[in-house]
Known about the structure:
This protein is of the alpha/beta class. The protein is built from 10 helices and 10 strands. Helix 6 links the parallel strand 7 (170-175) and strand 8 (196-201).
Amino acid sequence: MTTKNPEYDFKWCPGCGDFGVRRALEFALNARNEKHETRMRDNVIVAGIGCSGNLVHLMESDEQPFGIHGIHGRTLPIALGVKSGSPDSNVIIVAGDGDFLSIGMEHIGPQAQRNLNVTAIIMDNGVYGLTKGQSSPTSTFGMVTSSTPFGKIETPLNPLSFYLEIGVSFIASHYSSKPRELAALIELAMEHNGFSIVHVQSPCTTYNDTYEQLKGSKRKGIEPGIFDLPEDYDASDREQAVKLIADGRVPLGLIFKENRPTLGDQYKSMAGRAPAKASPEKILATYAL
Length: 289
Ligand code: SF4
Ligand code: MG
């Protein structure tokens, strides 16, 4: 797959949505680097376990970003460590619905409350693809998978609603087949000062091919599952975001954004209030964010 990592030999299935996300991330990183006059190595990608996590090995350009392929469900604790140790790096998480929203779910709340200044790109295909198609938190009710042969009996999670409730300060939603539009949204998320999540519908052509449901089919009478935001939509209005998400289909764009201090901002302010013997320099050196 990549000339940069010839020792790393794996393949994504033809048509996998993650190809579009990889391309979008590459566009977005190149644009950001140009704008801020930074290098690819000023970016760090923290990957979860799953087909989506393999994206970290596939970033191809003259220079590559740093990458960490961590452990299942723990992208956020790793990202916290990376951002603490290297506060000037642009930290991006790439993970799937299984990794991020199942085993990894317990980490979303704390980082949302801290407003950790990182960007998470979640590739949602509604299954565990790498381990051969088991049901995930976003698999639909009644869905037959290798782990639910008589149909899923749990109510599926609505990730956008969950992110909003738990305090994520930037929430966007998109679709892997529109890489240029997705890139613009990822770039916006990386510019956000705080915890940003871009939740991407990224179909798994092998275990849960949802392209037709997302795009729709006039011939088969299937209405598109994706929709553009109304022109007068205001992403700073929480009530509008609640109503938009309640639609149940997949909105394309920035759903919610609020500005509030990041974890790094709070540390700096705390350091200013600390007594003299705990000097600001010492605190900042310990929690450099
Ligand atoms: Fe993509 Fe699904 Fe194949 Fe994994 S199993 S590479 S998610 S199509
Ligand atoms: Mg998945």
